[in-house]
Amino acid sequence: MHVPDGFIDAPVSVAAGVAAAGAVAAGLRGARRELGGARAGSLGGDDRTAPLAGLVAAFVFAAQMLNFPVAAGTSGHLLGGALAAILVGPWTGVLCISVVLLMQGILFADGGLSALGVNILLMGVVTVVVAWAVFRGLTAVLPRGRRTVTAASFVAALVSVPASAAAFTLLYALGGVTEVPIGSVLTAMVGVHVLIGIGEAAITALTVGAVLAVRPDLVFGARGLTAPLKLRVGGELVDAPAPGPAPARSPRGVWIAGLAASLVLAGFLSFYASGDPDGLERVASDKGFDASAEEHASAGSPLADYGVEGVGNTRLSGGLAGVIGVGATVAVGTGALYAVRRRSAPRERDEAPRSAA
């Protein structure tokens, strides 16, 4: 659901950009706590957390290249807000999706540059906020355990996609450049994105479940949700004494596996993605406001439209573009989040004496 330049007028685009910038600034502050890992059960509170967050950004980038069919002549793709929030935390999730959208806009001419704030707001903020609220609400009332985390991930992702579609409709009602019946746009957008949300939910639940199966300690949303061990004492079940903190385990295996999966998705499986227009493109075409889209400022990029300029073989061109995109996203994402993590370290050291006192 990448909004191109020209769909939303300048005043609303600027306002959305300011709101998105505020959300990213808040994300930077919040991510310092999430990446710092000072709480029990965290990722260890060291510099290994930033590469994991960078990997999530790269995986979302790769998964977004795989459009899947949802209806006759319409496709959808992962938005990724729910997945990022549950795996690495909501604040860090906002930053991960923002990095993905920045890479797509600058390198691949996907999503308008003047609409970058709109896209971050819709796909990097609304999806994360809605998904995290739903996820936390469900995990608070359901029995604690891995199945609950996986099921809550499914529902949270499902709800987040039509919520983002409804938010787009609101922005279009405020700043759309073409007169169209907003009620019909809302119905069409939410309707098709409910179907896309089912695919989003399946991908999110499968990914979260896979990580939970091998390294539940790396799932931010699963912290503190493991049911305590029970012992039978005098015929009654009581909670076992809490074990001491487990030694930090390297996430290298998960990182390598995740990077390999991202490269396969973007470099190979993306060739088999649906070529049908996505939900927003289909609704824009049906409702008659697709003509307002403007040419992308990065249309001359050698990677525009997810192909490498000068490479004649379509399969090879798309695969190389995907691999380059994964590499660029993991590098930029890891570097940015590593910088955030490093800024949190002095603060933790400054607070340590006060905590000890």
Task: Write a brief caption for the model.
Helices cover 64% and strands 4% of the residues.
Task: Set down the secondary structure blueprint.
Blueprint: H1 10-36, H2 49-64, E1 68-71, E2 74-76, H3 81-88, H4 90-108, H5 116-141, H6 146-175, H7 182-214, E3 230-233, E4 236-239, H8 252-267, H9 279-287, H10 314-356
Antiparallel strand pairs: 1-2, 3-4
Give me some keywords for this one:
mainly alpha; 4 strands; 357 residues; globular; Arp2/3 complex 21 kDa subunit ARPC3; two-stranded antiparallel ribbon
CATH T-level fold name:
Arp2/3 complex 21 kDa subunit ARPC3
Range of strand content: under 5%
Structural shape: globular
Helix content: 55-70%
Distance between the termini: 51 Å
Average predicted confidence as pLDDT:
89
Which spans of ≥5 residues are poorly predicted at pLDDT below 50?
Answer: 38-46, 352-357
CATH hierarchy class name:
Mainly Alpha
What strand line-up does the widest sheet have? 1-2
